[in-house]
Amino acid sequence: MQTPKTIIQKIWEQHVVHREAGKPDLLYIDLHLVHEVTSPQAFEGLRMNGRKVRRPDLTFATMDHNIPTRQRLTINDPISKKQVDTLQENCQEFGVTLADIHHPDNGIVHVIGPELGLTQPGKTIVCGDSHTSTHGAFGALAFGIGTSEVEHVLATQTLWQAPPKTLNVKVNGKLGTGVTAKDLILAIIGKFGVQFGTGYVIEYTGEAIRSLSMDERMTVCNMSIEAGARAGLITPDETTFDYLRGRRHVPQGEAFEEAVTYWRSLATDEGAVYDTVVEIEAADVEPQVTWGTNPGMCIPVTASVPTPDASDKPSEKDEIVRALDYMGLEAGQPISSVKIDHVFIGSCTNSRLSDLQKAAEVVRGRKVNPAVTAIVVPGSFSIKLAAEKEGIDQIFKEAGFEWREAGCSMCLAMNDDIVPPGGRCASTSNRNFEGRQGNGARTHLVSPEMAAAAAVMGHFVDVRQFTAQEVS
Amino acid sequence: MEPLRTHQGLVYPLNRSNIDTDQIIPKQFLKRIERSGFGQFLFYHWRFDDAGNPRPDFSLNDPKYKGASILVAGENFGCGSSREHAPWAVQDFGFKIVIAPSFADIFKNNCVKNGILAIQASEDQVQTIMKNAEAREYCLTVNLEDQVVSDNEGFSLSFDIAPYPKEMLLNGWDEIGVTLTYEDKIEQYELLYK
Fold first, then answer.
1. Cβ under 8 Å to B: A residues 254-293
2. Closest CB from B45, B50, B82 relative to A144
3. Mean pLDDT calculated for residue range B17-29
4. Based on the structure, what is the number of domains in chain A?
5. B9 - beta bridge partners?
6. Pairing relation of β-strands A231-233 and A373-376?
7. Do A269 and A146 belong together in one domain?
8. What is the three-class DSSP state of A443?
9. Is A472 part of any domain?
10. Which of A249, A277, A305 is the last residue of a domain?
């Protein structure tokens, strides 16, 4: 009998092109996603060495990081424009399909891959972007790479990779009412730390994971990298197949059902052994708010900002002191007392249609606090259209939100959506690093529902109690 | 890529954990389409105030570390964004070696591709180096062949590195050139599966 394998090992073994002692495996890459920020030097490398893109048909490009969201067709920043134009030229020269700003498929790379059905179970997927882990929601092995590796994949459609260790994050039981996938992944990172996944690929399992929608699974897998893991995945099931059926790039008709049979076979075998297993009880998870300068610095909305005494380790004490200083917070103050002036609903973590629907439900009939600038940035052009068809844009606009064009936007502020120095933002994105949303800006990561409630109140509030109240 | 066999240099200690690539090279500098010239932006908002003047309280601005080529930092160095601009900035500033108790996976990979050696040492060893480098002008010698770091006062540590990245660094190979010698294998795989 064969040794039982995890889904991670199965996908890996199916993609080994070459194996020899003393070397990592040469791994085949099924899908290479490309964006404007991390690709220009890679294409330039190809040009300098007279090399071609080996498989343009397995390569797909979009522009997302630099795209303005007040209107999307004119980029005023000349350096941003140059980067976007360079991608256009490179795709043309090397024969790569590109969803440019005029294209209806345009959007955040990790939003449109799944939307178009490019992302599929069992695939190896890479992109010069750490949030490539998002695609693991479909049972794909998807990870971020640097620009040298982007060039390597363009030229060879392979990467030298040492087999990762496997980590099972098991989420037992059910999430409580008003507790979201975002709260779950923040709580996992908060509990186990920002580097517990380093060197591993995570498989998320357990009842709470199985009951998540695809959008929610993407939120969880997206932030695997914030736990240090290059990739995090979820075994595909009916939820996955229902999402994919009929999408443009998946097999159609009978071929789809054949694909499903194969996808089912990827599930981790009974008795397969992971290198590490950790567990968390879903029922214990509360709505989360980050208070510090990395995603592991998070607490339940009902709790207070920690004091430096919360850690015995000198380096961690220093980190807490520095984070409190940067964030302008008092040790021990309740997080719900923290006033905000910006709200950002968007990013590859939380900009999908269901994220916008849920946030809209929270703000329906209410008004954004006068002290708050609140923006909604859909993850793709098609999500924007779908939301408008449902009237979601109207709910947000009537509440006082700005309804914007699609892109990465204020998640990393490479376009002109910037939180000013000292500004404080409730953000549905993935990183609360110093300066992430603007030099001197302070970021608190939350779910779309929590962000929406904070926009109305002007400070953090437990969305479970907030939504129980009648609209006055 | 330049081969790296041995290196002797001045140590710069940055005693912080979880230094993310957003700090190493902030996003406003990622718009450039070149591979060079990122060193001037290394740790930009830690080095410079809003007016662009050097912050006197940030140690990298201390003249005693001028010319340092070995960066020593706290655990989980290089976490966050996959941007290769981070190792480009580290290297362009003049660092050839980074020593830390642990590194983020993507950053470590990106270092190898650029001929930077990322050495994982124990927390105690790193703290010893930090203290020495904070106290005085402190130099280390790194021998990649033997996998040893030492000073001339009797301190030494040996480090692990997998055979493949070691070979890449020692020889300064163009990895794509190496991979293309396996093109027949890639073709065979594609005939079967793609």
1. none
2. B82
3. 97
4. 2
5. B140
6. unpaired
7. yes
8. strand
9. no
10. A277
Write down the pLDDT at residue A1: 63
The owner of tokens 């975002």 is: A182
Give the SS3 label for residue B20.
strand
Residue B184, token pair as written in the block: 């027949």
Q: Using the 3D structure, point to which of A277, A310, A344 is the last residue of a domain.
A: A277
> Which strand ranges, in their side-by-side order, compose the sheet holding A373-376?
A402-403, A373-376, A342-345, A424-427, A442-445
A309 plus A206 within the same structural domain: no
For chain B, strand residue ranges (E) read: 6-14, 70-73, 97-100, 117-120, 139-143, 148-150, 156-158
Provide the residue range defining the domain that includes A363: 289-465
In sequence order, the 6+-apart residues with CB closer than 8 A to the CB of A50 are none
| Nearest residue to A103 (alpha-carbon basis) of A74, A63, A68 | A63
Residue A1 located in a structural domain: no
* A196, part of any domain: yes
Does a structural domain hold residue A146? yes
Tell me: do A179 and A47 sit in the same domain: yes
**Same domain, residue pair A262 and A294:** no
**A354 and A227 in a common domain:** no
* CA A142/CA A206 separation, integer angstroms: 21
pLDDT digits (tens, 9 = 90+) for A21-56: 999 999 999 999 999 999 999 999 999 999 999 999
Question: Given B20, B33, B74, which is nearest A40 (Cβ)?
Answer: B33
Q: Which of A107, A36, A185, A35 is nearest to A409 (CA)?
A: A107
3-state secondary structure of A117: coil
**How far apart (Å, rounded) are the C-alpha atoms in residues A39 and A88?**
11
Closest listed residue to residue A400, CA positions, set A420, A429, A375, A427: A375
Class for the domain spanning B6-193: alpha beta
Tens of pLDDT, residue by residue over A262-305, are: 999 999 999 999 999 999 999 999 999 999 999 999 999 999 99
Same domain, A116 and A40: yes
Q: In CATH, what number is assigned to the domain containing residue A43? A: 3.30.499.10
* Residue A472: predicted pLDDT: 60
User: Is B122 within 8 Å of chain A by CB?
Assistant: no
Q: Which residue of B has its CA nearest to A143?
A: B106
Claim to verify: residue A270 and residue A306 sit in the same structural domain = no
Percentage, residues of chain B above pLDDT 90: 97
Beta strands in A317-441 (DSSP E): 342-345, 373-376, 402-403, 424-427
Token pair recorded at residue A72 = 């999307």
Euclidean distance between CA atoms A130 and A431, whole angstroms = 11
B33 contacts in chain A (CB < 8 Å): 40-41, 44, 82-83, 86
Instruction: Assign A311 a pLDDT band (cuts: 50, 70, 90).
Output: confident
Whether residues A119 and A195 fall in one domain? yes
**ipTM reported for the complex, 2 dp:** 0.97
Inter-chain residue contact A23 with B164, CB threshold 8 Å: yes
Collapsing DSSP to helix, strand or coil, A123 comes out as: coil
Chain A / chain B CB contacts < 8 angstroms: 176
Cβ separation B102–A195 shorter than 8 A: yes
Q: List chain B domain ranges.
A: 6-193
List the single residue in B with minimal CA-CA distance to A128: B82
